[in-house]
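Morning F.,

Quick status update on the modeling queue. The single chain you submitted on Monday has been processed. Sequence for confirmation:
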Amino acid sequence: MNSDTPLSPRPLHHLPDGGRSVLTSRQLREHGVTAAEAAERCRPGGPWQRILPGVHLLHPGPATGEERLHAALLYTASRERPGHPEGAVPAPGTGGGPYGEAMITGLAALALHRFSAVPSLRALDRVDVLVPRARRLRGAGYVRFVRAAALPRPREITGLPTAPAARALADAVAQLSDASAVRRLLIEAVRQGHCEASSVVRELSRARLLSRAHVVDAVDALLAEGRAMAEALLYDMVRGYSLPEPLWNVELRLPGGPLLAGVDAYWPLQAVALEIDARTPRQGGGHDPLGRFTPAGEHMERLGITVVRVTPRKLRESLEAQAAVVRTALIASVDREPAPYVVIRPR
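Structure tokens below.
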């Protein structure tokens, strides 16, 4: 028996919705198409084409952007396990579904996340695929592999496993030397709510990209953008939820003494200070709404000043809840000992 002939072929026209437009060599054999027949149909001028080794596009003309990504994942899955024959695709449940553990990352993933600052999927010269570091894989055609010791949990976008926005952004930045392009991507990530500035900085640090001058400059712009957006939300919170008007952006000092802290808002009658924490999360203290885990916060608490810390994400996702935290701190001030006098100056 010819090894290319399946025991129970399933004709292509029996595929749902007219059939997939991208199939591997093995999938074609499962549908009764021998290797010789596939090669014949992929001749110049034929109805099919070989888009990647062992992967076929079942129509003439250019592939769509999503077809290119689908082909890249099928090519990866057919080779990421030693001993699998060309065109073999893991069965569902044996390591991440039909694509194994692979996922789209880099600029292609950002396009799937609907970043406007990246080319269309069809226009991309390369498609980056994130795979485990231990896999021995060689890129082919437009496919480039990005390896990682630990893979993030992918998001499924249009049926394709896709790296989270912050991780895809770091993988894209690693390939970019254009400072303005890097800056546009980082700013869009925060401005359009794709991810938090802190998560972007964390991924860039993990990828060891913060030693590059043009990336550092873009991060400075990113953090400034994130802070400006958070400040605008803070103004909306105070006025939209009828909180007393605070003193905005002030420094607190002891009389004749050193600087206590610079805060984003301060209610002097209640001795309540609010800080926007837009830094990269640190170990410990990340879930406490009060600022007692920093030296300045601890010092102010000992003096009787209540410190409320909010993150840009909390302001964006739960503005009403953050307003309730501030209102509770203001109400609770009547039960505390009066705070010592502090000098208040514009920051």
